[in-house]
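User: Round two. Same drill as before: sequence, then structure, for each protein.

Assistant: Same drill it is. First protein:
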Amino acid sequence: MSDMEKDSRKYLIPGLERGLLILMELSRNNREMSFAEILKLVDIPKATAYRAIQTLEYMGFVRRHPSSGLYSLGVNVLRLGFEYVASLDIVQVGQPVIESLRDTTGCSSHIAIRDGRDVIYVARVSAANATIRRVSVGTRLPVHRTSLGRMLLTGVSRQTFESLYPDEQLPDNEPGSPENREALWAMVQQDRERGYVIGESFFQFGISSIVYPLFNHDGEVEGVVSIMVPVHEIPENDRERLRHDVAEAASSISNLLGHQGTRGGKRQMG
């Protein structure tokens, strides 16, 4: 351990660090776990781990199932997450807009942001007859495999892009993945020039999406707004109407975020 690392660690609170490690493992595994399973994943003495879990349970951050005795994340963890999401300006100003977009298009509407190589849905409204309910607030999807992610990448520099994807091969080769890093970069540049993405079964067969960027007051891509259309390919007679509706929603949200350079959801280049 370097001297700098030693200096930074000397101010840490051991008990808090251990409790957060347990929460991180419960979150990462996304399932109920026994005390023995948790103990295997965290480098903490048994007695210390037990006290940490008891404290977390007392505070509502961990829940112990009364019958099985298994542990899972408690309601207070979820409350923290939802309060954070609700505190984002993009959600506050965007929620009424995507509700109107849903009513206009008849399609489920979403707002998402980027966290590293993940797309995170931070707001959503479902269409009245929606049969597709695969995403909810907090859902994470890989940036490089989604049309929303491609649109989010239009705001990053080449240097940032390479730091996100340092290897020529992308993290996986699942259906919907570009062939490699350069293919993804080329697609992102085309998306940036176009100003929007229509992704037809790009990530999931039978589901299309129309995605526009959201700009903040500095002209940076703050997030994206999208609609989810439950068809393999959007009919030509609906395509332009739906695209226009999403563009108008994107422009409205961007203007509410303080950006004055959008018209129809597309950045005005000077």
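Second protein:
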Amino acid sequence: MERPELAAALDRLKKVVFPVVSLTEDEWENFASCWHPVEYKRKTVMTAAGEVERFLYFVVDGVQRAYFVGEGKRDATLIFSYSGSMSGIIDSFQLQRPSLYYLETLTASRLLRLSFADFNRLLATYPNLERWGRIGTAAAMSGLMERYIELMTYTAEEKFRVLLTRSPHVLQLIPHKYLASYLALDPTTFSKLLATVKL
């Protein structure tokens, strides 16, 4: 990533961080200096089950998914990340324990990444960044709990409608087989809903 591209990527990160906490110039400069650009090809496993997640990511371009592989090698898509969002296996990262999940790129991806050592040091040094980490974790947990309720109580059509209302752009970004997995639907049901449900 060239210097102007890195500056633009950091500016996008800033627009995600500052609505949560306002950082001083010194706090932002120290925080921004710890994010480093990385690029991955399509279908690259960034973190494998059994590995400890070493990085928190900010997605500049591309789509990734976290997924779990169960018995019989069936995989279940847990979450997607894409341009403008944070990524990584958050529980493995914050607890520094082996991940139960995989994180892979679905498309070629450009990201910024922050190491656990830098994350830990920054949060211990700057109360505003500790607050950002805490609020970000709570927001992620809230989203996961809402999704859990949807998976446990909504019909197939309700799950489909919620996805398209909340994130209509995913139909163009993400292969439908992964969206079906994310909604815990078989691909045939997903295709039927795609053809019949109008928003």
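The mean pLDDT is 93.

User: Perfect.
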